[in-house]
Amino acid sequence: MQIWGLLCCLRGFNVPIVNSSFTSQRQADGRRWVTETHTDNLGATYTLPAYLAAVGADLNANMVIHAAALADQLVADEIAANMLAISVLGSAAAPTLVYSTLPQNIAALREAYRNATRIEAVMMGDFLSFQTDARLQTAFGLSAAQVTNLRTTKLTPAANAAAAVRAATGG
Question: What sign has the CA pseudo-torsion 164, 161, 94, 40?
C-alpha cells in the first residue's frame, strides 16, 4: 500500500517509507493479529512486532501511524549519527542525508553546539569551517558580514584547534 509515501509527498516531507503492507489473522472473538511490513527508500524492509487489533480497528490507519513513527525514527537515528560523527571527526565527518534533510541536520547541529563539550564544539566548528559562505548564511540566517565574523572569531580558530588535536593524536 502506497498511502504513506503519497501523504508525505503531498505534505512536502522527505519520504523514508515508500511502501507499507500488513497481514492479519482474525481471532475467534473478532480481534485480529496484525503484522506490518514497511519498506524504506533504499529497499530495506522493517517488519514490526505483531499486535492484536481491536474489533473494528482501522488497520490502514494504524499502518499509516506506524509508518510515520518508523519514518520519524529513521530520521532521528540518521541525524543522531550525523551529529556524533561531526562532534568526533569534525571536517572529516561525512554526514548522510538518506532519511533526513540538510535543514533538519543544521537545526540539530545548532542545538548540539549549544550543549557541546569544548572538544565537541571545536570539532563542530571545524566541520562548519569547510562549509561555503552561502550555506552558512542560509543555515544560520546570517549576512555576508556576519559569516565573515563567524569564520574569523569561531570557525577558523576551531579548525586550527581541531588540526592541532589531530596532529597530537596522530589522527
Answer: positive
Tell me: the pLDDT tens digits for 140-165? 889 999 999 999 999 999 999 999 99
Q: Could you report the per-residue pLDDT of 71-82, keeping only the tens digit for each?
A: 999 999 999 999
> Residue 30 carries which DSSP code?
S
Place of cell 509508518: 67
User: What is the phi/psi pair of residue 26, to 5°?
Assistant: -70, 135
- Is 20 in a helix, a strand, or coil? strand
Domain spans, the chain: 3-75, 77-169
Report CA torsion sign: 11, 13, 18, 19.
Answer: negative
Residue by residue, DSSP assigns 57-81 as: --HHHHHHHHHHHHHHHHHHHHHHH
User: What's the whole-model pTM score?
Assistant: 0.81
